[in-house]
Specification:
By secondary structure, the protein is of the alpha/beta class. It folds into two domains: about 160 residues, HAD superfamily/HAD-like (Rossmann fold); about 110 residues, Calcium-transporting ATPase, cytoplasmic domain N (3-Layer(aba) Sandwich). The protein contains twelve helices and 13 strands. The protein has a seven-stranded mixed β-sheet with strand order 1-13-12-11-2-9-10, sandwiched between helices. A six-stranded antiparallel β-sheet has the order 3-8-7-6-5-4. Helix 10 links the parallel strand 11 and strand 12. Helix 1 packs antiparallel against helix 12, helix 2 crosses helix 12 and helix 4 packs across helix 5. The termini are close together. It binds adenosine-5'-diphosphate (ADP) and magnesium ion (MG).
Protein backbone atom coordinates (compact mmCIF):
# COMPACT_ATOMS: atom_id res chain seq x y z
CA UNK A 1 0.00 0.00 0.00
CA UNK A 2 1.36 3.41 -0.84
CA UNK A 3 0.59 5.85 1.93
CA UNK A 4 0.75 8.70 -0.58
CA UNK A 5 -2.18 7.42 -2.64
CA UNK A 6 -4.25 6.92 0.49
CA UNK A 7 -3.41 10.37 1.83
CA UNK A 8 -4.35 11.91 -1.52
CA UNK A 9 -7.69 10.07 -1.51
CA UNK A 10 -8.43 11.13 2.08
CA UNK A 11 -7.64 14.73 1.13
CA UNK A 12 -9.91 14.60 -1.91
CA UNK A 13 -12.75 13.14 0.16
CA UNK A 14 -12.42 15.66 2.98
CA UNK A 15 -12.91 18.49 0.49
CA UNK A 16 -16.27 16.92 -0.34
CA UNK A 17 -17.25 16.65 3.31
CA UNK A 18 -16.38 12.96 3.66
CA UNK A 19 -14.11 12.52 6.67
CA UNK A 20 -12.06 9.34 6.75
CA UNK A 21 -10.47 8.62 10.14
CA UNK A 22 -7.96 6.01 9.01
CA UNK A 23 -6.46 4.85 5.73
CA UNK A 24 -7.15 1.25 6.61
CA UNK A 25 -10.93 1.73 6.47
CA UNK A 26 -10.60 3.15 2.95
CA UNK A 27 -8.78 -0.03 1.89
CA UNK A 28 -11.45 -2.14 3.59
CA UNK A 29 -14.20 -0.21 1.85
CA UNK A 30 -12.80 -1.14 -1.56
CA UNK A 31 -13.50 -4.81 -0.74
CA UNK A 32 -16.99 -4.38 0.73
CA UNK A 33 -19.72 -6.75 -0.56
CA UNK A 34 -22.72 -5.68 1.52
CA UNK A 35 -23.89 -2.29 2.73
CA UNK A 36 -26.33 -2.25 5.66
CA UNK A 37 -28.45 0.89 5.75
CA UNK A 38 -30.44 2.22 8.68
CA UNK A 39 -33.83 3.63 7.67
CA UNK A 40 -34.82 6.72 9.62
CA UNK A 41 -32.45 9.59 8.96
CA UNK A 42 -30.24 7.52 6.66
CA UNK A 43 -32.41 6.35 3.80
CA UNK A 44 -35.22 8.73 4.65
CA UNK A 45 -34.99 12.47 5.24
CA UNK A 46 -35.22 11.87 8.96
CA UNK A 47 -37.72 14.64 9.43
CA UNK A 48 -40.96 12.70 9.63
CA UNK A 49 -44.12 14.78 9.69
CA UNK A 50 -46.95 14.27 12.15
CA UNK A 51 -49.98 13.37 10.09
CA UNK A 52 -52.47 12.34 12.76
CA UNK A 53 -52.99 12.40 16.51
CA UNK A 54 -55.18 9.69 17.98
CA UNK A 55 -56.75 9.48 21.41
CA UNK A 56 -57.69 5.96 22.54
CA UNK A 57 -59.19 7.03 25.83
CA UNK A 58 -62.08 9.45 26.41
CA UNK A 59 -60.25 11.03 29.31
CA UNK A 60 -57.57 12.47 27.04
CA UNK A 61 -58.09 14.92 24.24
CA UNK A 62 -55.77 14.93 21.23
CA UNK A 63 -54.22 18.10 22.63
CA UNK A 64 -53.40 16.30 25.86
CA UNK A 65 -51.97 13.30 24.04
CA UNK A 66 -49.56 15.43 22.03
CA UNK A 67 -48.72 17.53 25.11
CA UNK A 68 -47.71 14.48 27.17
CA UNK A 69 -45.93 12.86 24.24
CA UNK A 70 -43.95 15.99 23.32
CA UNK A 71 -42.92 16.45 26.97
CA UNK A 72 -41.52 12.94 27.05
CA UNK A 73 -39.90 13.07 23.61
CA UNK A 74 -38.26 16.41 24.39
CA UNK A 75 -35.56 14.40 26.15
CA UNK A 76 -34.84 12.12 23.20
CA UNK A 77 -32.65 12.77 20.17
CA UNK A 78 -34.42 10.31 17.88
CA UNK A 79 -35.72 11.85 14.62
CA UNK A 80 -39.28 10.78 15.53
CA UNK A 81 -38.92 12.55 18.88
CA UNK A 82 -37.60 15.74 17.28
CA UNK A 83 -40.51 15.81 14.84
CA UNK A 84 -43.08 15.37 17.59
CA UNK A 85 -41.57 18.19 19.67
CA UNK A 86 -41.32 20.44 16.63
CA UNK A 87 -44.97 19.78 15.74
CA UNK A 88 -46.02 20.58 19.30
CA UNK A 89 -44.11 23.85 19.36
CA UNK A 90 -45.59 24.89 16.03
CA UNK A 91 -49.17 24.12 17.04
CA UNK A 92 -49.50 24.57 20.80
CA UNK A 93 -48.15 27.10 23.23
CA UNK A 94 -48.30 25.45 26.66
CA UNK A 95 -44.91 24.75 28.22
CA UNK A 96 -43.83 21.14 28.27
CA UNK A 97 -44.48 19.03 31.36
CA UNK A 98 -41.66 18.08 33.68
CA UNK A 99 -40.40 14.55 33.10
CA UNK A 100 -38.42 12.56 35.66
CA UNK A 101 -36.61 9.22 35.54
CA UNK A 102 -36.25 9.48 31.77
CA UNK A 103 -34.82 6.42 30.05
CA UNK A 104 -34.23 5.31 26.49
CA UNK A 105 -35.46 1.84 25.56
CA UNK A 106 -33.11 0.94 22.67
CA UNK A 107 -34.81 0.14 19.37
CA UNK A 108 -38.19 0.64 21.01
CA UNK A 109 -38.84 4.08 22.48
CA UNK A 110 -38.56 6.09 25.67
CA UNK A 111 -40.01 6.16 29.16
CA UNK A 112 -40.28 8.55 32.06
CA UNK A 113 -42.49 9.80 34.87
CA UNK A 114 -44.80 12.81 34.87
CA UNK A 115 -45.86 13.35 38.49
CA UNK A 116 -46.66 9.81 39.63
CA UNK A 117 -47.58 8.43 36.24
CA UNK A 118 -45.38 6.04 34.33
CA UNK A 119 -45.29 6.98 30.67
CA UNK A 120 -43.90 4.98 27.79
CA UNK A 121 -43.76 6.06 24.16
CA UNK A 122 -42.54 3.97 21.28
CA UNK A 123 -43.38 1.38 18.67
CA UNK A 124 -45.57 -1.74 18.92
CA UNK A 125 -43.10 -3.42 21.25
CA UNK A 126 -44.41 -1.27 24.13
CA UNK A 127 -47.93 -2.61 23.68
CA UNK A 128 -49.21 -5.76 25.25
CA UNK A 129 -50.45 -8.41 22.88
CA UNK A 130 -54.17 -7.52 23.11
CA UNK A 131 -53.73 -4.27 21.20
CA UNK A 132 -51.37 -5.59 18.62
CA UNK A 133 -53.86 -7.10 16.18
CA UNK A 134 -56.22 -4.11 16.13
CA UNK A 135 -53.65 -1.64 14.95
CA UNK A 136 -52.72 -0.89 11.43
CA UNK A 137 -49.10 -0.70 10.42
CA UNK A 138 -49.03 1.34 7.25
CA UNK A 139 -47.36 4.45 8.63
CA UNK A 140 -44.88 4.89 11.46
CA UNK A 141 -46.78 5.10 14.72
CA UNK A 142 -45.56 6.25 18.10
CA UNK A 143 -47.81 4.82 20.79
CA UNK A 144 -48.26 6.40 24.19
CA UNK A 145 -49.02 4.34 27.29
CA UNK A 146 -49.79 5.68 30.74
CA UNK A 147 -49.50 3.24 33.62
CA UNK A 148 -49.49 0.36 31.12
CA UNK A 149 -52.68 1.52 29.35
CA UNK A 150 -52.62 2.67 25.75
CA UNK A 151 -54.00 6.23 25.76
CA UNK A 152 -53.05 7.50 22.34
CA UNK A 153 -50.77 7.50 19.34
CA UNK A 154 -49.27 9.79 16.77
CA UNK A 155 -48.83 8.80 13.14
CA UNK A 156 -45.88 10.12 11.18
CA UNK A 157 -44.76 9.86 7.61
CA UNK A 158 -41.17 10.01 6.59
CA UNK A 159 -40.00 10.44 3.02
CA UNK A 160 -37.34 8.71 1.01
CA UNK A 161 -34.32 10.93 0.36
CA UNK A 162 -34.39 12.50 -3.07
CA UNK A 163 -31.23 10.75 -4.30
CA UNK A 164 -31.91 7.38 -2.72
CA UNK A 165 -32.96 5.54 -5.90
CA UNK A 166 -29.91 6.83 -7.75
CA UNK A 167 -27.53 5.97 -4.95
CA UNK A 168 -28.88 2.42 -4.66
CA UNK A 169 -28.60 1.89 -8.43
CA UNK A 170 -25.00 3.11 -8.37
CA UNK A 171 -24.08 0.83 -5.49
CA UNK A 172 -25.67 -2.18 -7.17
CA UNK A 173 -23.72 -1.38 -10.33
CA UNK A 174 -20.55 -1.64 -8.24
CA UNK A 175 -21.71 -5.05 -6.94
CA UNK A 176 -22.39 -3.73 -3.48
CA UNK A 177 -25.56 -5.34 -2.12
CA UNK A 178 -27.72 -2.87 -0.16
CA UNK A 179 -29.61 -4.25 2.85
CA UNK A 180 -32.10 -2.15 4.78
CA UNK A 181 -32.27 -2.89 8.52
CA UNK A 182 -34.86 -0.98 10.48
CA UNK A 183 -36.33 -0.92 13.94
CA UNK A 184 -39.59 0.10 12.33
CA UNK A 185 -42.50 -2.22 11.48
CA UNK A 186 -42.78 -4.58 8.51
CA UNK A 187 -44.99 -2.53 6.21
CA UNK A 188 -43.17 0.77 6.62
CA UNK A 189 -39.81 -0.92 6.14
CA UNK A 190 -40.99 -2.88 3.10
CA UNK A 191 -42.50 0.25 1.51
CA UNK A 192 -39.33 2.29 1.91
CA UNK A 193 -37.18 -0.61 0.63
CA UNK A 194 -39.41 -1.00 -2.44
CA UNK A 195 -39.35 2.73 -3.18
CA UNK A 196 -35.55 2.80 -2.90
CA UNK A 197 -35.06 -0.33 -5.03
CA UNK A 198 -33.62 -2.39 -2.19
CA UNK A 199 -34.43 -6.11 -2.43
CA UNK A 200 -33.22 -7.18 1.01
CA UNK A 201 -34.75 -5.74 4.15
CA UNK A 202 -35.17 -6.64 7.79
CA UNK A 203 -37.66 -5.01 10.18
CA UNK A 204 -38.35 -4.86 13.95
CA UNK A 205 -34.59 -4.90 14.48
CA UNK A 206 -33.11 -4.25 17.88
CA UNK A 207 -29.57 -2.78 17.94
CA UNK A 208 -28.13 -6.24 18.66
CA UNK A 209 -30.11 -7.76 15.77
CA UNK A 210 -28.29 -5.39 13.44
CA UNK A 211 -24.84 -6.23 14.81
CA UNK A 212 -25.59 -9.98 14.98
CA UNK A 213 -26.59 -9.97 11.35
CA UNK A 214 -23.36 -8.21 10.41
CA UNK A 215 -21.44 -10.87 12.32
CA UNK A 216 -23.32 -13.58 10.43
CA UNK A 217 -22.44 -12.03 7.07
CA UNK A 218 -18.80 -11.75 8.12
CA UNK A 219 -18.77 -15.44 9.08
CA UNK A 220 -19.85 -16.09 5.49
CA UNK A 221 -16.74 -14.28 4.28
CA UNK A 222 -18.48 -11.02 3.45
CA UNK A 223 -16.98 -7.62 4.03
CA UNK A 224 -19.68 -5.41 5.45
CA UNK A 225 -20.12 -1.65 5.60
CA UNK A 226 -22.83 -0.10 7.75
CA UNK A 227 -24.29 3.38 7.53
CA UNK A 228 -26.40 4.79 10.35
CA UNK A 229 -27.07 7.87 12.42
CA UNK A 230 -28.51 6.79 15.74
CA UNK A 231 -27.23 6.05 19.20
CA UNK A 232 -28.51 2.52 18.70
CA UNK A 233 -26.55 2.07 15.48
CA UNK A 234 -23.26 2.34 17.39
CA UNK A 235 -22.79 -1.42 18.07
CA UNK A 236 -23.25 -2.28 14.39
CA UNK A 237 -21.07 0.61 13.20
CA UNK A 238 -18.31 -0.85 15.36
CA UNK A 239 -18.96 -4.44 14.28
CA UNK A 240 -18.92 -3.63 10.55
CA UNK A 241 -15.64 -3.70 8.62
CA UNK A 242 -16.37 -0.07 7.80
CA UNK A 243 -18.78 2.11 9.80
CA UNK A 244 -20.18 5.26 8.21
CA UNK A 245 -22.00 7.93 10.23
CA UNK A 246 -23.84 11.19 9.59
CA UNK A 247 -22.02 14.34 10.75
CA UNK A 248 -24.70 16.67 12.03
CA UNK A 249 -27.89 14.64 12.43
CA UNK A 250 -25.86 11.71 13.76
CA UNK A 251 -25.50 11.14 17.48
CA UNK A 252 -22.01 11.68 18.93
CA UNK A 253 -21.80 8.01 19.90
CA UNK A 254 -22.50 6.88 16.33
CA UNK A 255 -19.85 9.27 14.96
CA UNK A 256 -17.33 7.99 17.44
CA UNK A 257 -18.12 4.36 16.61
CA UNK A 258 -17.62 4.95 12.87
CA UNK A 259 -14.58 5.09 10.59
CA UNK A 260 -16.03 7.55 8.10
CA UNK A 261 -18.36 10.52 8.61
CA UNK A 262 -20.54 12.20 5.99
CA UNK A 263 -20.55 15.86 7.04
CA UNK A 264 -23.44 16.75 4.73
CA UNK A 265 -25.60 13.97 6.22
CA UNK A 266 -26.36 12.69 2.78
CA UNK A 267 -26.15 9.23 1.26
CA UNK A 268 -25.61 10.86 -2.16
CA UNK A 269 -21.90 10.88 -1.17
CA UNK A 270 -21.74 7.07 -0.99
CA UNK A 271 -21.10 6.25 -4.69
CA UNK A 272 -18.16 8.67 -4.88
CA UNK A 273 -16.75 7.27 -1.65
CA UNK A 274 -16.98 3.66 -2.85
CA UNK A 275 -15.58 4.50 -6.28
CA UNK A 276 -12.63 6.42 -4.92
CA UNK A 277 -11.76 3.66 -2.44
CA UNK A 278 -11.62 1.15 -5.29
CA UNK A 279 -9.61 3.41 -7.52
CA UNK A 280 -7.16 4.01 -4.71
CA UNK A 281 -6.78 0.34 -3.98
CA UNK A 282 -6.01 -0.38 -7.62
CA UNK A 283 -3.17 2.15 -7.66
CA UNK A 284 -1.84 0.42 -4.57
CA UNK A 285 -1.61 -3.10 -6.00
P1 LIG B 1 -34.73 3.16 12.56
O1 LIG B 1 -33.74 4.29 12.44
O2 LIG B 1 -34.51 2.10 11.56
O3 LIG B 1 -36.15 3.62 12.65
P2 LIG B 1 -34.04 2.90 15.36
O4 LIG B 1 -33.23 1.79 15.92
O5 LIG B 1 -33.52 4.28 15.41
O6 LIG B 1 -34.42 2.41 13.91
O7 LIG B 1 -35.42 2.89 16.14
C1 LIG B 1 -36.20 1.76 16.11
C2 LIG B 1 -37.62 2.08 16.37
O8 LIG B 1 -37.79 2.37 17.77
C3 LIG B 1 -38.13 3.30 15.64
O9 LIG B 1 -38.57 2.98 14.35
C4 LIG B 1 -39.28 3.70 16.54
O10 LIG B 1 -40.41 2.92 16.22
C5 LIG B 1 -38.80 3.34 17.92
N1 LIG B 1 -38.22 4.48 18.63
C6 LIG B 1 -36.92 4.72 18.89
N2 LIG B 1 -36.76 5.87 19.57
C7 LIG B 1 -37.99 6.39 19.74
C8 LIG B 1 -38.50 7.56 20.38
N3 LIG B 1 -37.73 8.47 20.97
N4 LIG B 1 -39.84 7.75 20.35
C9 LIG B 1 -40.65 6.86 19.75
N5 LIG B 1 -40.23 5.74 19.14
C10 LIG B 1 -38.93 5.49 19.13
MG1 LIG C 1 -32.02 5.60 12.99
Amino acid sequence: ATPTAIMAAIGNLSKKGILVKDGESLEELAKVNDLILDKTGTLTCGEPEVSEIISCNDKYSKKEIIHILASLENKSEHPLAKSIVKYYKNHENKTLKEVNDFEIIPGTGVKGKIRNDELIAGNRKILNKTYETELDDETTAVYLCKNNQLIGAVLLSDFLRKNAVDVILNLKAMNVTPILMSGDNKNTTRNIAAKAGIDNYKYDCLPEDKSNYIKELQLNDKKVAMIGDGLNDAPSLKKANVGISMGSIGSDISIEASNITLIHDNIRDLPHLFKLSRKTLKTIN
